[in-house]
Amino acid sequence: MWRGVDRGRSRLALYPLLLLAVALAYQPAWRGGMLWDDEANVTSPELRSLDGLRRIWTESGATQQYFPVLHTAFWVEHRLWGDATAGYHLVNIVLHATSAWLFALILLRLGVTGAWLAAFVFALHPLHVLSVAWITEQKNTLSGVFFLATVLAWLRFDRTRSGRALAAALLLFVLALLSKTSTVPLFGVLLVLAWWQRGRLSLRRDVLPVLPFLLLGAGAALVTVHVERTFVGASGTLFSLTPAERVLLAGRATFHYLGRILWPDALAFIPPRWELDPREAAQYVAPAALLLLVAGLWQLRRRTRGPLAGLLVFVGLLLPVLGVTNHYFYLFSYVAGWWAYLPSLGVIAVLSAGAARLRERLPPRARTAAAVLGAALLFMLGAITWQRSRSFADMETHYRAMLADNPDCWMAHNNLGVVLRDSGRTSEAFEHLQEALRLRPDYGEAHHNLGAALVGIGRLGEGIEHYEASLRARPDAIETLYNLGNALVKSGRVPEAIARYELALRLDPDYGEARNNLGKALVLQGRIPEAIAQYEEALRRRPSFARAHENLAEALASLGRWREAIEHYQEALRLQPDDPSARKGLLEAQQRASQSP
Questions:
Q1: Does residue 406 belong to any structural domain of this protein?
Q2: Selection from 121, 96, 80, 109 nearest residue 29 by Cα
Q3: Residue 174: is its pLDDT beyond 60?
Q4: What CATH number did the domain enclosing 585 receive?
Q5: Angle at CA 331, nearest 5°, toward 330 and 334?
Q6: How many domains does the chain have?
Q7: Which residues neighbour 61 within 8 Å (Cβ) at sequence distance 6 or greater?
Q8: What pTM was computed for the model?
Q9: Angstrom distances, CA of residue 27 to CA of 74, 118, 136, 266, 382
Q10: Phi and psi of 13, rounded to 5°?
């Protein structure tokens, strides 16, 4: 067993060292910008009020996933530093260092040798760059702190049978679940720890107290599965894996993560998506090898239960992402580095304990060399982490790093194309958007983005064709309907544009820009009263919509309703004081009104 007592500095004194090590390793990411879906997770404008905080807790779908503790943390952070990304990165660094420290305390409480080595390996391991350097994955670092604090509270309960300790553990677990539901398998981890310590499980002592954790986890898992399918989009033929395919996925993914822990050099942000084929006998090697590994460690349990316990913790915490349920990310890849954040604890604990026990058996002189070797290992891990963190500096750097790791990542080609288009590098943008469509011809988002790029340089016909191709892939894509309507107006195909705007508004009646542009299209057809009705409805839903006030004023002025037009021009200028067209329209309306009887 992994027994022994670590000697050395005070437990509290080592926390600043962990924090310093993490901060230095992640220094390139301190000022990294918003990446990929960060803007969808950091508190959106409509949720930044107190009522927005209420919605975070009470409305499923108000945030990308129902993790209200995480989004409350983001809400507070936005109050403190707004959109300045350095604050979010520093919070992630502190949370990660705290998790590493709690990990050491758990191992010390369990009497596991090499606890501090394990903590520093966890803190500096490059596998965790995707969790610490990416703002969105504060869900990992925050839930990790609550998860490990839950284990510590449980160990106190296990020793004292204190109801207060059990209540604390349950409360911390609820906070972990509401930060990220990858913490669901905690009940299994607690049972593994009980078995590891005592060599057997007692129904009364070990199993019954864990049942509340099982029930809480099951409830949270059901909510997450519903949100993934309903709001995130983890449904459809691409997610329809057969039972055999899920077995293949579980085996291959387990060894993928194990390999990345043991050899952390190849860490693609989005690894290539595997082809799972139950007809290929070779694909069963990984599941069979996993069963053999478990069987071998089971036979070893009479000598030491540690390696099997570590493997069970590793696989148990991975279980939610091993094909048991669908995840939206399966659209891009079946594996993701951030999914191994907590599972890596089991493997790191075993390896660190083994290294520490081996060092204890060495002659005194060799122990010094082993300590130097350990320090060199930590330095190497930190150096790789530092290097990988550089890819989180900005979106262009990030997507280019993705493509360096996985040149066939169609999502990265698409997103890099958008970044290049927005920075005015149109020819480069075309290359990447076209490559995204070559890799995935039915990629609706890439069709949309290529359409926008073509329209932007005046190639309206080609742009319209790509918008329509996008809608064939995504008939309910509201932004594409809106942009297609705009392109059709520019092409003089106003009736078709009106139809697209109306469809967008049936899907989202609050889409103010679509309603405003529908009004403008109706004006082009001379249907002024209908246009006025659309502008008024847009303003009823969004009274501060300056452009709708101005357009309504123009429509009213065209009917000679000067005084009403003046009111809306004035409101448009109050909202946008520097709008020259509204000022010109106001002066003309005032002049015409003064001439009217």
A1: no
A2: 96
A3: yes
A4: 1.25.40.10
A5: 30
A6: 2
A7: 227, 230, 231
A8: 0.89
A9: 21, 22, 18, 21, 11
A10: -65, -25
